[in-house]
Amino acid sequence: MRKKLFRPIQIGSATALIAITSFLSYGIGLIRDRVIAVNFGTTSATDTYNASFIIPDLLFNLFIAGALTAAFLPIFTEYLVKDKKEGHEVAHTMLTTATLLIAVLSAIAFIFIPHIIPFLFPEATMEMQQNIITMTRLMLPSAILFAISNTLGNILMSYKHFIAYAFSPILYNIGIIGGVYFFNDTLGIYSAATGVLIGASLHAVIRIADTLTTEYKYRPSLNVRHPGFKKIIKLMIPKSISLIAWQINLLIFAKVGMQMMEGGLAAFHFARNIQSFAVSLFGISFATAVFPFLTTAAAKGDKEGYTAHIQKTIQRILFFTIPATAGLLILAEPVVELILSGGVFEEKSVSLTGLVLLFFAISIPFESLTHIFARAFYAMKNTITPMLVNISSMTIIGVITLFVAPKFGIEWFSIGFSIGFIFYNLLMIILIRKHLHGFKVNVFLMSLAKTIVATGIMTIAVLVLNPDVITTGIPIKIFNVLRILVGASVFFIVAYIIKSPEISSVGYILNRIFKKKISE
Questions:
Q1: Sign of the alpha-carbon torsion through 282, 176, 337, 422
Q2: Would you say residue 474 has pLDDT above 90?
C-alpha cells in the first residue's frame, strides 16, 4: 500500500501534483494566517511571533538550505546515473552532517539567545524581547527537523518521488493551525510557535516514510572528504551567501517595521504570504517540478532539451502570474478583507495590509521567474551567477527599506521588494541568453501577447463588477468572491478562445485531478 502511494512519477504528473498540492498548501496557509490574524491581529504579539523565525531560519538557510537548493540535487543525481553506491555515500554524509551541524548550532543559539535578541532589537520593549527569546527557543528544534526533511526531499526528487515532497508543506501549515486552535486559550501567541514545531515534525515524518520506499537506505556517515561532498560544499557557498542576504533583509524588515508602527511587521508578513500564494503555486511549483529534468538534460549535454524545459516553464509562469498581478492590483484590499478580516483584525489592519499588498502584487511575475532562472544555472552547477545577481537585488531592497520606507511609509517595503526583483530579472535575462540553444522567440512573444490580451479583458470584467456602482444586496465578501471567480473565468475562456498554448497546462492539471490514468 505504501509503495503504491509513494512511487516515481513523470514530469507532467509531477508538475500537476506540485501545482495542485501547492494550491492546497497555500490555501491552508491563508487559513493559517486567518487563524493568526483573527486571534492576534496586527499587534506587537504578532510582530514578536514573526521576529522569532529569524534565528532558526538563519541557521537553516546559512548552513543547509544553500547546499540543498543549489548543490545537492545536481551532484546526487549525477552520481545516481554513474555510481549509485557513491551517490548513496554522498547522501549519507549530507544527511548526517546537516543534522549534527544544525543540532549543535541550535544548542549554541539556545544558550546565547538572551544576549542576541537585545542586540538585534534594542528598540523593542523588554516584554517583546522576552517573547522573542522564548518563542525562538521553542522554534529552534524545527531547524533540525527541516534539515532532515529537506535533505530527504532532495533525495526523493532525485528518485522522481514527489508525493511526500508535495504534501509535507500542507502538513506543516496544518500543524500551525492545530497549535493555535488547541493551545491558544492557555498559551496565547506561544500557541503559534508550538504549532510551528508540530508542523515541522509532520513535514519530516511523511518524507521519512516516502524515503523508506526508495532504494536509498540511510546509514550514519561523516565521509566529508568524499569528492562529491566537497563539490556540494563548494557549490553551496554562493547560494548560502544569497540566502544570508535575504535573511539580512528579513532582519531589516523586522527592525524597521517594529520601529515605524505597531503591527507594521505583521502587516508586511500577512501581505507577503498572500503575494506568495501565486509565487509558490506557479513560480516555485513549476520550477521545482522541472528542476530534476533540467539537471538530467544538463548532465547529458542536451542543450536543446534544457532550453525547451526553461522556455515552457517561463511561459507557464507568466501565463498564470500576469493575471494574478492584475487581479491583486484591483482587489488588494478586498482580498485582505476576504481572507483575514474578523476578530481583532479590524478595518485598520485591513487597510494597512491591503496597502502593502497592493505594491507586492507587482512583484509576483518577477519573483516567480527568479526560481526558474536560478535553477537553470544550478542545473549547470553554476551557483556564482545567481548569488551575484541575488545580492545585487537584495541590496536594492535593503537600501530602500532602510532609508526610503521610514520617510515615505510602510508601502515602500513592498515597492522596494518589487524594484529589487525587477532588477534581478533584467540581469538574469542578459546572463542566461548565451546558455540557451533553440529558444523560440516568436513562440514566446506570441504566448506573452495572448496572455496580456486575456489579462486585459479579465481586468475590464473585474472593474465593471464594481460594488460601488452595482447594487445587488449581496454581502460584500460574497460579491468580491464572485468578482474573483468571474475574473478568473473570463481570463481562461479568452485564453481558450485565442488558443493560448499554456491553456493546455490547465487542462492537463484538471485531467490529473479527475482521471486516474492518462498516458504521459
A1: negative
A2: no
> pLDDT digits over 211-242, tens only?
888 888 889 888 888 988 888 888 777 777 87
What are phi and psi for residue 122, nearest 5 degrees? -65, -20
Amino acid occupying residue 459: T
Q: Using an 8 Å Cβ cutoff, are 60 and 68 in contact? A: no
A 10 A CB-CB count for 244 gives: 17
Cα angle vertex 272, ends 269, 274, to 5°? 115
User: What's the grid cell of residue 210?
Assistant: 516516502
Give CA–CA dist 327/114, Å, rounded: 44
| Count of beta carbons in the 10 Å neighbourhood of residue 387 | 23
- HSE of 3 in the Cβ direction (CA atoms, 13 Å)? 3
Q: Contact at 8 Å (CB) between 34 and 339?
A: yes
Classify residue 279 as left (phi > 0), alpha (psi -120 to 50) or beta: alpha
Which segments within 16-164 are labelled E, that is strand?
none
Q: Do the Cβ atoms of 426 and 441 come closer than 8 Å?
A: no
DSSP state of 284: I
| Measured CA distances, 295 to 77, 280, 302 (Å) | 8, 21, 10
Chain Cα centroid distance, residue 483: 26
Which amino acid, one-letter code, is at 132?
Answer: I
Amino acid identity of 326?
A
**Structure confidence at residue 4 as a pLDDT band (50, 70, 90):** low
Q: What is the pLDDT of residues 357-414, one digit of tens each?
A: 999 999 999 999 999 999 999 888 888 899 899 999 999 999 999 999 999 999 999 9
pTM of the predicted model over 0.85: no
* Residues 98, 72 contacting (CB under 8 angstroms): no
Q: What are phi and psi of 345, to 5 degrees?
A: -90, 90
Measured CA to CA, the distance from residue 340 to residue 30 in angstroms comes to 8
Please say whether the beta carbons of 94 and 151 come within 8 A: yes
The separation between CA 512 and the C-alpha centre of its own chain, rounded to angstroms, equals 23
Chain mean position to CA 162: 17
Taking the CA atoms of 429, 433, 437 and 439 in sequence, report the sign of the dihedral they define. positive
C-alpha 432/C-alpha 107 separation (Å) is 41
Residue 470 pLDDT > 80: no
Q: Which three cell numbers stand for residue 219?
A: 546509514
Contact status, residue 49 vs residue 135, Cβ threshold 8 Å: yes
Rounded to whole angstroms, the Cα distance separating 336 from 83 reads 51
**Alpha-helix residue ranges (DSSP H) falling in 400-475:** 405-408, 412-432, 441-464
The rounded distance, in Å, linking the Cα atoms of 226 and 192 is: 41
Number of Cβ within a 10 Å radius of residue 177: 21
Backbone φ and ψ for 244, nearest 5 degrees, come out as -60, -40
The residue among 113, 161, 123 whose CA lies nearest residue 44 is: 123
Provide the grid cell at 453. Answer: 490580451
Q: Where are the domains of the chain?
A: 44-237
3-state secondary structure of 224: coil
